[in-house]
Amino acid sequence: MTVVVGVGAVSPEDVVRVAREGALVELSAEAREAIAKSRAVIEEMAASDTPVYGVSTGFGALATRHIEPELRTQLQKSLIRSHAAGTGPRVENEVVRALMLLRLSTLASGHTGVRVETAEAYASMLNAGLTPLVHEYGSLGCSGDLAPLAHCALAVMGEGQVEDHGVIRPAGEALASYGLAPIELAEKEGLALINGTDGMLGMLVLALHDLRQLLDTADLAAAMSIEGLMGTDRVLAADLQALRPHPGQAESAAHMASLLAGSPIVASHRVGDGRVQDAYSLRCAPQVHGAARDTLAHAATVAGRELAAAIDNPSVLDDGRIESHGNFHGAPLAYVLDFLAIPVADVASMSERRTDRFLDASRNQGLPPFLADDPGVDSGHMIAQYTQAAMVSELKRLAAPASVDSIPSSAMQEDHVSMGWSAARKLRTSVDLLTRVLAIEIYTAARGIDLRAPLTPGPATGAAIALLRTRVAGPGPDRFLAPDLEAATELVRSGALLEAAQKEIS
């Protein structure tokens, strides 16, 4: 599998393939031509007496100094070395690979002025499986993800460290072992390698990919809870949803209805049930999940625009001009990264409320307290809900926006920043926590449904429970719960539970 990086945008699917699946990359002939054309402009500018930011001047608040030709190679090296100032835990390899691919995509646009060999060095590192060590802290989300991207550029220069298929090695040593030569950066190239929003964008693309699956899984979890709590599927009817024509709401309701189709449990109380309405966490699931879907759609639109962008400063324009601007500011990404954290927290919050209903004998329609085998001796799923509640509380904290903050930098030259990297990092945590919260609901709902025997679930929910039972035992006395929760989480994260259910939907 090879991803061709051309002058246009890379697709979200290609980002996932390179980041997670190790897909190879190559530059298109058109991209090489565009890169060479913009490089010629930079070399012409470098030879002139006119100061050009990033070519013959310093950077940021030091841009007033003219740099003599004999110092310009050192200027680029110094830029990368000084900006590779990240600290804290390592950023995940998939994020680093995504941001390297996206930086390569901008280089391929022909608007940055780098040499072809510099762009090819990024492709070669990705193809060799060498991942620069990037750290959690260092980006303000403005002037690009400077520190994270600088650590990558440092590795291309043969400095710093990389992970080579699980082994941490000096970058120069690792490059040599794959027959790759370090790059000696020329005018403008250091700036072009670090002045981008690629870390923020990479994390947004990966989160969108994961959340599409998780929102489908949230529908599955809610359907299982409706079934196990003897709720009604009548509220999922298409004509009811059409009264409020939000597309995500209609999609979630239709999905949940299909997951509950043919359920003997639901059919068993369709007539003669004295309850007039289910609780909100059951009845309003399509509205909440649907609003999350619509938020996701908006964020995907922003990501698509950013994937088509060429983020650098200054930029080489098609008519040969080189102009400074503010396209590196991370606000468009920061806002949607923050926005997504809100519905993620709310979907998880509703999931926890459904779990709690299963455990309360006054609300669970005849099931034992805490779904315990011998209540009092056994605690059942009591503490699983505690774990879920702790994660939901954390999700609410993570829903507070990062993008409303700004700390001036570079002697007040960079006096407003986006904090988009921080927004992206907390969204990644939120996605992981939502995965775990939904897994606990499914784990609990499966036990509740099993306890409805001899009534049986529908084909779709039944298939999900059957797969879960290959990893986790059914109702019985208390046992070590943590391994069960991890097994359920992995089935949710991999998409296997969702796939098992959806195979039964006609």
Features:
2 domains, three-stranded antiparallel beta sheet, two-stranded parallel sheet, Fumarase C, Chain B, domain 1, 506 residues, Fumarase C, Chain A, domain 2, 56% helix, mainly alpha, lyase
Your description of this structure?
The protein is mainly alpha-helical and 506 residues long. The chain folds into two domains: 195 residues, Orthogonal Bundle (Fumarase C, Chain B, domain 1), CATH 1.10.275.10; 293 residues, Fumarase/aspartase (Central domain) (Fumarase C, Chain A, domain 2, Up-down Bundle), CATH 1.20.200.10. It contains 20 helices and nine strands. The strands form four sheets. Strands 4-6-7 form a three-stranded antiparallel β-sheet. It has a two-stranded parallel ribbon with strand order 1-2. A two-stranded antiparallel ribbon has the order 3-5. Helix 1 links the parallel strand 1 and strand 2. Helix 9 packs parallel to helix 15 and helix 15 packs antiparallel against helix 16. The longest helix has 31 residues. It is elongated, with a radius of gyration of 26 Å. The two termini are 32 Å apart. The model has no long low-confidence stretch (mean pLDDT 94). It catalyses: L-histidine = trans-urocanate + NH4(+). Belongs to the PAL/histidase family. It is an enzyme of class 4 (lyase). Its EC number is 4.3.1.3. It is found in: Cytoplasm.
